[in-house]
Amino acid sequence: MKTQVICFANNKGGSGKSTTCANVGYGLTQLGKKVLLIDGDMQLNLSLSFFTDDEVLEYAQGTDNLYHAIRNQKDLKNYIIHTPYENLDMIPSSTLMSSIEYELFTKWQREFILKKCLSSIIESEAYDYILIDAPPTLGGWVMNILCASDKVIIPVEATPWGLFGLGNMFEFLEQVKQMSPDLEVMGTVVTKVDTRKNYFKQTFESLRDLEDIHVFETYIRVDSSVEWSQDNNMPIMAYRRSSRSAQEYMALTEEIVNRK
Prior knowledge:
Blueprint: E1 4-8, H1 17-30, E2 35-39, H2 45-48, H3 53-61, H4 66-71, E3 81-82, E4 88-91, H5 100-105, H6 113-124, E5 129-133, H7 140-147, E6 151-157, H8 166-179, E7 184-191, H9 198-208, H10 224-231, H11 236-239, H12 244-258
Parallel strand pairs: 1-5, 1-6, 2-4, 2-5, 6-7
Antiparallel strand pairs: 3-4
Helix pairs in contact: 1-12
């Protein structure tokens, strides 16, 4: 199977991007897949899902991270670290990612730098999936991430503000498709669901009204177990496999694998 690159993106913060990316990544390993995670966000949340605060800061402040690789246009295979989990590797982020837009601005074919840096990993077919956590912006760096991806999944939180700015996201995706026409929107996944609240149904209805946009059947409910797992720097399935969230993320992972 050819390596599939999927990014998790939404220009609105707090949509559950990093949590979804981390848990789908872990879920894929439970299905026997080899996975590489790339933390593309200066907030380091994806890295913190697998490593302690001290370890993440050490990677972030050193030179073995995504920022230094992209800035110097290096082969990303030299920046891979192993997580504590089998078949799950990562390229950690850096707080310096906040200046990556400036770093990219003068570069030749700047929208494709990440794609170029990833090319040898993809060609090696060492991984079944590469999952990228994008920052909550719509700039040159997110364009890089999208141009390097085969598919994009958009987490949307089921709150009154959850759909805010989604139109901008889809407009941006149309711009990216002019440069990277094979990019597909795999679908939207509804997160932070409280089924007692009306806007849960409203979010689903609004998303299903969007033309040609798939909405994943599995949704992720609010669950304190997720916060506890994050506090322990673990994906929810490793922290508490019996929890509702663990089962929901596993169901979502299976949906993603089965969606062609």
